[in-house]
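Hi W.,

Here's what went into the run:
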Amino acid sequence: MMENSRVKDFFHKYTMILVMIVVFVLFDILTGGRMHFAQNLSNLLLQNAYVVILACGMLLCILTGGNIDLSVGSIVCVVGAIAAKLMESSSLSPIVIIFISLAAAILIGVFQGYLIGYSRIPPFITTLAGMFVFRGLGRVVLDSRTISIKNETFLNIFTSYITVPGLDNGMVKYSAIIVGILASVAFVATTVIQRSKKAAKGYKVASIQSTIVKIVVISLAVIVYCWKLANYKGIPVMLLWVIAVVAIYAYMTGKTAFGRYFYAVGGNEKATKLSGIDTNKIFFFAYTNVAFLAGLCGLLAAARVGSINGDSGTQYEMDAIGSCFIGGASAYGGSGTISGAVIGAIVMGIINQGMSIYGLNSNWQYVIKGVVILIAVIFDIKSNHKNMAKA
Amino acid sequence: MAEKILIMKDITKEFPGVKALDRVNLEVETGEIHALVGENGAGKSTLMNVLSGIYPYGSYTGDILYNGEECKFNSLRDSENKGIVIIHQELALIQLLSIGENMFLGNERKGKLGIDWDETFSEAEKYMRSVGLKEPATTLVKDIGTGKQQLVEIAKALAKNVKLLILDEPTSSLNEESARMLLDLLLNFKKQGMTSIIISHKLNEVAYVADRITVIRDGSTIETIDNKNHSIDEGRIIKGMVGREMTDRFPKRQVKVSDEVSLEVKNWNVYHPLFEEKIVDEDISFYVKKGEIVGFAGLQGAGRTELAMSVFGHSYGQKITGTVKIHGSEVQLTTPKEAIRAGLAYVTEDRKGNGLILQKTIRENTTMSKLEKVCRHGIVNTDEEVKLAEEYTVKMKTKCSGIEQNVGNLSGGNQQKVLLSKWLFADPQILILDEPTRGIDVGAKYEIYGIMNQMISEGKSVIMISSEMPELLGMCDRIYIMNEGKIVGEVNAKEATQEGIMEKILISDNKKGRENV
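Here's what came out:
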């Protein structure tokens, strides 16, 4: 009985990670092992960097009560277009252009955030309008052309690989392996220190076995992944961008008071308001922030593809929303984590890439993606329902 | 011996942690108007929900005999099919649909191709005329007043071929004139042979219409009083409603009230948040001293919750005017945040709707109203948070599996303790408690009283809004009596009696009635 419930707990806690592993292994078998080629593993990340970053922003919106932002794909387009146009037609330095583009994104976010947070226009309507408006403005800026990006500095900021002269001249980029090992050591050290600190204060800690399993699995995963990167081109700069964004938002939602308020608003807005929390500000921030991250994605996407056109960023919002829900965010708001959203994004990425390598017709790829999202939400609602019934 | 249309025998209904009904008996004769009276929370509405199948067969024990036949209702629909229709205090009409559409909602008049609108509206008007409504049936519900909406509900019940009509506080939101009209309508239906059960706080109305009166107190039937010749004294009913023994239900305290006034509200006016013409609280002034517990007595809808919430950072209403002084200096509190900073805390009566986040843990709920207390530079110190949350569960004797348990899984009394923890955590100087003991058992009540005493012994002030009069008399130093948005009396709790307070409310009702005539 005891064992049984522990197994259940384990599955409940790590469902998404297990799903991720199963999906990966499944496609690896289907594609005859091509999924774990170094190049494919590296590309898996690069191709989905934008989804991971957008999912972090989208999660905050979803937390406030299952609200979504439909306009992010269009913001990606308009911000990418502004950057491309400025690089083409002005002599500003790429750094300045990046700041101008991000400022434009924040401006868009403030506009939508104000309408949603302070004028209380429903988010769905506001961002639906935004989806059309900013897609159109993007095309106006581009003048219906495709603008390619040739500025080397700009491209390097987002798409280069880290190479250390002398160390990484050969086929294997040793710097990646070293970073991987250092990261693992740092992870092991912080876990151990935190655990002993907790134990010293007399708080409940996870059992020693499960801690060891966790340390071993995660460190191994990090080292193996870095080993694969080393065998391709080394650590992509884009990985650093993704890690930075994920770390900031995971910290904010998990550790800060401000982050806690997003969950509170989604859980019970009236009670939150009566607890002296400015709920309007929470909505305002969520939508300003997601536009800012969409702007960042606009730059990433422009650099990765090397060009921007009127259709850039189409349906990015759907990928971001899907990631959050696959990652366990509640469709009614109030619960969900950044790590869940990231895993959701990776699962979607694995499915996309696996299906492409396998050679599945792209029409079917849509069907499968849709089914996966639906199953994830049904699972969430059913399991929550059960928990409620227990009460 | 008259024929009995309804016999409810030994009805017992339990909610987690509370026995709402304890072997209640109710007998209603065919063709009579039977009144059900009792204080808030006595179990009247629960009993009617059992009868109408909202609480399905099996969730309670006891027997229901309707026209001599045993009933096992599983839903509202089952009871309606038998001709039992209940009209709730909050009307179940859809504002943006027409009267006709509302009347046949779920019971549509169908033609060959969809709804037959001609029949719907002409049928509707037929029933509307019989309750004295002259509007066309295509009028939207939002365009008629509350009194007429009440009549629409009755017409709707008639359309369902009602044999036993149950009205829960039908006149609570009506003025004297519409109330009298409604009661006369009931008397009229009685002549035509309809049976009704009326739940009401307004004892003058009960005395006017009811043939027999059943008094319920604390989930038990106390007595059934005969009123066939409509000559009963209201005092007689009040005695049945409140007459309980007062032994050691309240903890003793030895705190001297200081002379220093901690909160003073003057000339406070609040208007309804949606209907800006409707005044909810009118020209209210009150104060509370350090070390004092001040009570607010009144019936539902007297404007007490609205008063408290509007003082607490304008959380209710609009066009709010008046002054608030805290420790002698005037303050502007326009958001809950400012109110909390000024040392106020408002513990809501609606703990699920306005108080707690049910799907979050005890820990998160406890710290919510002053999270910065466990934060440094905006970063939550989880260790500190865990420690404090645990302290509160121990202090409040909250029964839970641990502070990581979701609040939604706790019983009502324990949820109330978490709610109280949440506000004590904010270190208030003035604690406003709105129905702090509603729906919780006696033991938990006693503990909550103890916490109130603890607060005032620390030199803080407590304001308690309660519909349970013994509790007000047992715990408070002074009691303000409110009715219809006004303060109609202020009494020293030591000298006050329940009958006296009830009389003040009723007298103010009658006065108002006379003004209207």
